[in-house]
Amino acid sequence: MSASSRLSLGRLALNGAAGLALLYILLPLVFVTWLAFFRQEIPSFPPEGYSVKWFTAAANNQPFINGFLLSLQVGVAATLLGLLVGVPASLALVRHRIVLGPLFNTLLLLPLVMPGIVLGTAIYVFQIETEIATGLPVMGSQGGLIGAHTLVVIPWVVRLVTASLVGFDRTIEEAAQNLGAGPFTTFRRVTLPSIRPGIVAAGLFGFVTSFGNLEMSLFLVGPGRTTLPIAILQYLEWKIDPTVAAASLIQIVLIAVAMIVTDRYVKLSRVV
Amino acid sequence: MSTAPEPVAGARTGLAGLLVMPATLFVAIGLLGPIAILFRYSLNQFIPGQFMVDGLTIENYVKFFTDAYYLNVLARTVKVAVICTVACLIMGFPLAYVLARTQSRFKNLLIISVVLPLFVGNAVRAAGWMTAFGSRGALNASLMGLGVIDQPLEIMYTENAVLIGIIAVNLPFMVLTLQSVIEGIPRNVEEAAFSLGAGPAAMFRRVLWPLALPGILAGTILTFILAMNAYATPVLLGGPKFQMMGPLVYGQFAQQNNWPFGGAISFILMTATIVLTVAAHLIVQRRYR
Q1: Domains annotated on chain B, with CATH
Q2: Are A86 and A157 in contact (CB under 8 A)?
């Protein structure tokens, strides 16, 4: 065998191994999608036929609807809050030599690597103590949930906005100021438009992270008030059928659309 | 009248501090505060019937490390985490390499297919495996249809199901971490190795692996932490008998209402996380200063 054919054989094996790994990652989503279109309720293969009736069933399932609405509200609120505090922080961290800057940066990214179970238990006991100290009904409240979700949104904002600032040419800002623009005008007319892709990506990633959060939220939801991932988990602990698969598929499609939209603004391969 | 151009960084550090403070305070209070309280709780006593009693005792930690049941759960969790991490590294490297080196116009689509499952959530992905692994699920039905087996395999509620599930959950993290590091390695060094007569295996072992080592360590740590803390996958695919640390913590909080002991277990998990992360950072820094 010649050297070049051996090399192309190696390339084939490499691509094959890569393809298998990708298939393995996507396989569970393929099965969920398949099950969502079964005609019969029991997930036995091969299916007796296909139907779209389970999407109606999922859309009429009260826990799923309530979970979806709560996840949506919490996700939007947490994303907005995360952007509100995260964007200025990223600007300051990239632009200025702040005392302890690297430490702040590490701290802001910390919630991303903190295991969800630990975050959930820690925030749960924090809410107990806050409720005891202030008398406010924090535990199981929507506000408490939003606060916790903001915590996991902030790292994404800092990470993505920082990344979009790194390639930014500061001389453009100096030019604007030479031409008479004040600091605020410079920010609004020059800086903001050029980091907008980063902010959009941060918003979408933050939202998706919040929307899909399971482990942390598990400790923070109140009775009769659950997020969509928890509603799906609780349903699955009881049984698996096409209804829950249909609900999952709706979620998969929404997230896929969000990601493809994000990718138009910021190449995902550069930020994740 | 025009404002004077802003002087170089340094003059406005007061403003910069003001910008960075809200987020930093939020994370400091919302993350470090809770962890401090959790630690304090783990030193309290739990007396059945009386709930939590303020105290200063290490009995919760002693209870964990002296009870064979809990030690078994910890050992099983570590075992699962190690197997999953090694499997993720072996399966993830080829995919990460191909993604990093590809010139394909579908590169972004490939990246999205790796990232999408991450955001879909663990419960949904576990649902996919539940569909496949049931006694009349896709896997058993195909194997029986092909005549490979007569009786359906018992996969659901076994360690294998949990392993398959967690590897699938963690593989994207490993792939993305490795990919970003491999992209930073110039292709020239690979070509130089080849032109000097190295075969693919020698090139991998002597060039690619050492250069990618920081990424390999980062990915390994990340997947290990995630596997140690897995919750939805062991609950749904392992069932109630297959206990791991994550579900154990949740059970102590939600079912037993034993906050001190739950806090101690949670703290043991987190300490393992931090110790591993710091240790790996030190190793990487020492090698690549």
Answers
A1: 55-287 (1.10.3720.10)
A2: yes
Question: Could you tell me the two tokens for B30?
Answer: 């919302």
- Helix or strand or coil: residue A222? strand
Q: How far apart are CA A239 and CA A56, in angstroms?
A: 18
Contact B82, A15 (CB under 8 A): no
Contacts of A174 in chain B (CB under 8 A): 5-6
Structure tokens at A12: 């084939």
Whole-number Å distance between alpha carbons of B233 and B227: 10
User: Would the ipTM clear 0.90, i.e. be above it?
Assistant: no
Q: Which of A62, A153, A175 is nearest to A108 (CA)?
A: A153
Q: Which fold has domain A62-271?
A: MetI-like fold (1.10.3720)
**Cα–Cα dist B218/B86, whole Å:** 13
Peptide bond into A137 cis (omega under 30): no
Per-residue pLDDT of chain A (272 residues; tens, 9 = 90+): 556 666 678 888 999 999 999 999 999 999 999 999 998 888 888 888 899 999 999 999 999 999 999 999 999 999 999 999 999 998 888 877 777 778 888 889 888 878 889 999 999 999 999 999 998 888 888 999 999 999 999 998 998 888 777 767 778 888 888 888 888 888 888 888 878 878 888 888 889 889 988 999 999 998 778 999 999 999 999 889 999 999 999 988 988 888 888 777 766 666 55
pTM here?
Answer: 0.86
Q: Judged by CB atoms within 8 Å, which residues 94-133 of B form the interface with A?
A: 94-95, 97-99, 107-108, 110-117, 119-132
Domain ranges of chain A: 62-271
Nearest CB to A125 within list B6, B10, B38: B38
Q: Which residues of B touch A125 (CB under 8 A)?
A: 34, 37-38, 41, 259, 263
Q: Which of A105, A117, A263 is nearest to B108 (CA)?
A: A263
Percent of chain B that is helix, strand, coil (3-state, to 5):
75, 0, 25
Identity of the residue in B116, B122, B262 whose CB atom sits nearest the CB atom of A121:
B262
Cβ distance A45 to B112 less than 8 Å, yes or no, reads no
Using CA atoms of B215, B218, B223, B225 in order, give the dihedral in degrees to the nearest 10: 180
